[in-house]
Amino acid sequence: MRCPYCGHMDTQVKDSRPTDDNSAIRRRRSCPACSARFTTFERIQLRELTVVKKGGQRLPFDRDKIARSITTACRKRPVDEERIERVVNSIQRRLESMGESDIPSSVIGEMVMEALQGLDKVAYVRFASVYKNFREVKDFENFVETLAEPTTGDKEA
Fold it and tell me: Which domain holds residue 123?
């Protein structure tokens, strides 16, 4: 593994342990050339995934892009990074187990929406505003109305 600080090609693993959800191996590394320390993560990749965008463009799947999107939606919300990481791992596993190498971006977007709905309602609305391309306040109002749970009024006899 190349040192991200000095570029030295031979770094040493000082400690290895599984992540909390056992989906990756966390390795603490040290560079003998500059003495810098850094962490790497090793994950299982079941298959190479390609994201097919709406316009037909094909891009390699990037789990970090999903993580950034969810982190942005959850900014200043009471959602810790560990929960976000579990959600991203879950989405990636679901995509890999679909049996398809080509995944429409809309499928990924819907999975993220579904995950955020259970994680944090404000983050869900934030993500939806970008994903569904809200242009006016009315778009927000209509979307939020669909979230409102029907209240059961007490009927007096």
Answer: 47-147
Please, which contacts does 124-129 make with residues 24 or more away whose CB atoms are closer than 8 Å? 124/73, 126/72, 126/73, 127/69, 127/70, 127/73
Q: Hey, what are 80's tokens?
A: 């810790």
Instruction: Give 10-residue mean pLDDT values along the chain (157 residues).
Output: 91 89 85 94 76 92 92 92 90 88 92 92 88 79 73 46
Residues 6+ apart with CB under 8 A from 119: 70, 74, 79, 83, 84, 87
Check residue 144 and give its pLDDT.
78
State the Cα–Cα distance between residues 112 and 131, nearest whole angstrom: 10
pTM of the predicted protein model: 0.65
> Per the domain annotation, does 31 fall within a domain?
yes
- For helices 63-73 and 121-131, give the axis angle rounded to 10 degrees: 120
